[in-house]
Fold these 3 entries.
Entry 1:
Amino acid sequence: MTEPQFLRLDGFTKADRIQMTDRVSEAINQAGAWITDFHLYSNLLICINFQVAIADVGRLAITLPETGLHLSQESLKQLTSVRDSTLNEKELGGTLQITFVHHEPDLLRDVPAVPG
């Protein structure tokens, strides 16, 4: 497998959405990576954008699964291929998409009226 130029990680969880988001955020920080942005899609999905030094991808490969998040096989392959690379001076951007498996109704938010 060739080394990815951008990490596209995805996983799922049945854990509480807010608690899992906190755990994943902490795991990203513990790995030496940092969150650059995120997007919530109702209460079904979150997409977290992050940056990580290639030298720290190995730590990310350890800290993310420790949260209880079930990463896809493709995500695990990407983390392994970068971790085992010899490029230690570069950074990678990435996304982590988390799907929340639950039976709750969609999270509805009031949208304020826009004047005009």
Entry 2:
Amino acid sequence: MNNNLSVLETRKKNTITRLTKGSKIIKTIINAIHEKKGENVISLDLRKIPEAVADFFIICEANNPSLLKAIADEIEHEVKERCNESAYKHEGRQAQQWILIDYVNVVVHIMLPEPRKFYQLEEMWSDAVSTEHTEK
């Protein structure tokens, strides 16, 4: 079996910790994105979609690869500091087009504008309740 697929088999949603839109980890991630000037921040509530791999997706854009990495670093630092949680996995730091940070119940997608337009995650998960998060 492909190693990438075996990782998906071992990764299970944590049903003990049910998250809400107001959960500390979600607020921390969104604040970290805004702190580093991430743009077009959207959360998708996937809890009512049976085939979803997480309870929430948080999607944002960075204008360049340096900002992409800075946002990812800030998210991981702040979530560890404030929520005492480390990422289960992260992908994409080398390619610097789309960084994914997986906290099991929350998956963060930090994307450059072109990959975001191309992959259209919001469209793919259009059954999810979408919330736009503007900086306060």
Entry 3:
Amino acid sequence: MINLENEKKQWFPLCVKGRYERKICDELTKRGFTVYLPLIKRRHLWSDRYKIIEEPLFSRYIFVHIDPRLKYFVLDVPGVQGFITFQGQMVHIPDFQIEYIQRMVEYPDTFEVINKIIKTGYKVRVISGPFCGMEGVVQSIKNKSRMYVTIDHIHHTLVIEVSEYDLELIKDGTS
């Protein structure tokens, strides 16, 4: 048996199968690991109403507090895709950054997380709001989450201002 008493545990980001974050957290917890899945309440539009749902702050990521020598026991859990690495080494998250995330989720209206990287020239589709279903090309970016999208219809070009949250990339993201 490995003596882990002298080794310091660290937080590691773990990439998991999409929409399996809670199941994997539960399984890792059952196996005795300390895990953190930051959840945030968001308002979603259903076909006939808005509903508040709790979803992961970082889609497809959870944090596990382990001794790095135990990584194979974590990787053994179905749905776990792997640890985030840089130059072949597992990337660890300092304790203070996990504490920052924990404090941030207490005040969800004070920040936003942008999970997509959308740049000028990328082809996109509007997925919610009054322009839902329209496709276009990002013409310019106003700020971190607002951008202008050019939509060509009936030989006229419309330029709309839309939030990045209301867009999805088409194909590989290039036009």
